[in-house]
Each structure stands twice: as structure tokens, then as C-alpha cells.
Amino acid sequence: MSDKKNLGHNSKKDFLKSPVEHIDITSFDSRKIIQSMKKMSFVSRETANAADIFNQMIKDKECSIFLTLAGSTSAAGCMHIYRDMIKYNMVDAIVATGASIIDMDFFEALGFKHYQGSQFQNDAELRKNYIDRIYDTYIDEEELQMCDKTICEIADELDPKSYTSREFIQEIGKYLKKNAKKKGSLIEMAYDHNVPIFCPAFTDSSAGFGLVMHQEKNPNKHITIDSIREFRELTEIKIKSKGSGLFMIGGGVPKNFIQDTVICAELLGKNVDMHKYAIQITVADSRDGACSSSTLKEASSWGKVDVTKEQMVFAEATSVLPLIASDAYHNGNWKNRARDIYRNPKETLNFFGIKNDMTVVELSPGGGWYQEIIGPYLRKNGKYISASYDPESKNERTRDCLLYTSDAADEGLGVDLGGRRII
Question: What is the DSSP letter of 2?
């Protein structure tokens, strides 16, 4: 209860002096913690199982991964986690509340900050100082209104027509490329990597205030947000995906919106599978019958989520999400997933003229770029051989010669110098 002390009459500057710092999942390796949590019980084991499922999603090259965001974890220090999940190709599309994307991410991209505060502070005093409170986190309302006005300014410059939230957020990304005070926001990273962001309840945020001002200024020529068209667009992504996985922070509209793509596809006469993988981190109580709290097993009764690889994690997200995301980053499965776009396996095989019954020797295979294309292709009828120099040899001439060759006779598998399987 020490937070209750020394909360007298303070100035605005006194309240807004300790900025929230966003955690960096690349700066620590949580893999040993996750491995230990597998041997525990309760939320620890749920968290470890969720980490395993997320790694499976990333390794599954036919899985489109959807990240959904509800709640205020972006304001609480998780903003860079979501950004880095895009940067390191751990997600393919995002469905979020307008607040997560505009009031928090765009807000900070404009150079503003969220501040550490106290949940015990007198809210009347905060109101006198024009400070908004999210549990123990503070926001300067004057700065938030500047965010609203900037949305209005962006809308004023666009052609007066209907946009999906995805299209409008893409325009925000374009704006940030030239005007961001803080580089590398979630919106800007998504813009750079062509990752779509959908906000089905877009107007329930600073975006809504900004767009109302825009329409008030331009009564006859203004933009509108078409949520029906964006639902169809998101459903088309699901239809075209060979498989799909959900990583859901909180619940709300984003959770239901992405799950409903399966039902929508069915109503359009398309045969699609339920979401193959699903993780939800929430503190909601399933006994209230609400969407946010409904379990993934419950969603399976609606035909939305397969129960084979699903995990509910009943925890406050800022306490477990960094561990799951850091584990995925340091496991490194995203490295192969990221470069699949650029490796062009078919074109690579054609370029080298490789046939599936050949014996192929690769010198100094390095990180496995070609191994993971050629090995599986030769697995049945051919042979793959990886060859490298011996850097430990005492003989200079020997070091300059090929010392090791490990053929891939056992089912086409290559082996590096340490005996580690690489295909």
C-alpha cells in the first residue's frame, strides 16, 4: 500500500515524469525459463505450452499467423513486442482495437509518451490536470487530442471516398514515413513490411474523434470507413490461407472478428478449415458468457477453432507475453520463415539445373540457405553432400583442403561438421 503515500496536490509535471519503457525481447533469452515452466503447473505450464504452439505456428510454412490486440498492453510496455513480431516475420496480419493502434502506437509515433503512475491516485486531481488514467498508467489528454487532430489532418488530404480501416491505417503509415517523431512504430513497421492491420471498431478510438472532426469540416466531401468491406477482405485472406493460427491478446471485437472469418467463408460457399492453432492470453472469467472470456474449446462448437493445438493462458498479458515472444525470437524459426519469400525454391532449382535424381555437393554450406531447398528435393531419389574445411587442423595444407563430406544417404539428410542434422 506504499503507493498510497505522498499523493498530495501535484502539478502535471509531477505526474508525467516517469515514461513507460517498452520491453525489448531481443535483449534477453527466455528459453530456459520457458523450458523450466514446462515442468511446473498452473499458469506456468499454460505459458510454456502457448510458447510451444506459437513456435509450431512459425515453423509451419503453410500457416498464416494473425495477431489480435485488445486492451492496453501497448501503453503498458509491450508496444515493441508487437512491432518486433512484424519485423521478424512472426505475424502476417493484425486485427486490433482502434485504441491499440491509434491512441497508443500512433500516439507515441507522434513523439508523445505514456507514463508510469498509480492506480491509487485521486482521479479528480488527475482530471484537474487533464491526465487520463489506464490503471497505473497516465496519458496527457492534451497530447491525445493532438493525436485526434492529426487523424483529421490526414483524412483531409485523402480523396473523399470509402476506406477500410486497413486502407486508412496504410495512409497513416505513409504519413509516418515523413512525419514520425519516433521511428519504428508498429504502424510504420507494418507499412514497411506490407502487413495489413484491421481495426473493426476503428471509430471507438482517437480515430473516431478525428474522423468526426474531418466530416464536420467537410460535410459534402469526406471519407468514410467501410467495415463490411474490410470483413470480406479479412475473410479472403483466410480463404487463401492453407492454414491459420491465432495469437490473441485479450478478447473483444478483434478476437471475434478474426474467428468469424471461418463462418463468413462458409456462408460464401467456400470450404475452409477452422483455425488450426490458437492462443489466447486473458484474465476474463468464462462464466460471464461474453466473447472476451469464451474459451477456445467453446469456439470450436461454433466451428471457428480446432481444439488440437489451442491454449488459454489465464494471466495478465504483460507478465507472460514477453516470455513467449522472447522464446520465439531466440528459437529462430522465423529466420527460415522470413527468407522463404526471397529464396524462390523453384527458381533456384531451375537456375542450377538440379534434377531430383542427382548427387549434389555443396561446399561450405553455411547457414543452410540452399540445404533446405535442395535436401528435401533430393530426399527420395538423389543424394545431398555437404562439404566443409576443417578450421581446427594443425596442417596448413589440410586446412586448405576439403576434409569432411557427409553424404545424405539416410533419407536425404545433410549433416554438418558437428554431426548436427541440418535438413
Answer: G
Tell me the pLDDT tens digit for each residue of 184-237: 999 999 999 999 999 999 998 999 999 999 999 999 999 999 999 999 999 999
Indicate the DSSP class of residue 11: -
Spacing of C-alpha 206 from chain mean position: 22
- Of all residues in the chain, what percent are helix, strand and coil, respectively (each to 5)? 45, 15, 35
Please tell me the total number of residues recorded for the chain in this structure.
423
What is the residue type of 15?
Answer: F
Q: Answer for the pair 246, 313: CB distance below 8 angstroms, yes or no.
A: no
346 is catalytic: no
Report the sign of the C-alpha dihedral through residues 129, 133, 138, 143, in that order.
negative
Helix (H, G, I), strand (E, B) or coil at 115: strand
How far apart are alpha carbons 238 and 232 in whole angstroms?
10
pTM: 0.81
**pLDDT tens profile 238-274:** 999 999 999 999 999 999 999 999 999 999 999 999 9
In the block, cell 526471397 appears at 342
Report the alpha-carbon distance of residue 348 to residue 126 in Å, rounded.
62
Nearest to 406 by CA among 385, 379, 420, 389: 385
Cα–Cα distance, 135 to 14 (Å, whole number)? 18
Q: Which of 87, 255, 276, 304 is catalytic?
A: 304
Closest alpha carbon to 247 in 67, 86, 58, 52: 67
Distance between CA 48 and CA 32 in Å, rounded? 11
Strand partners, 247: 67, 279
Report the relative pairing of strands 402-407 and 383-389 from DSSP bridges.
antiparallel
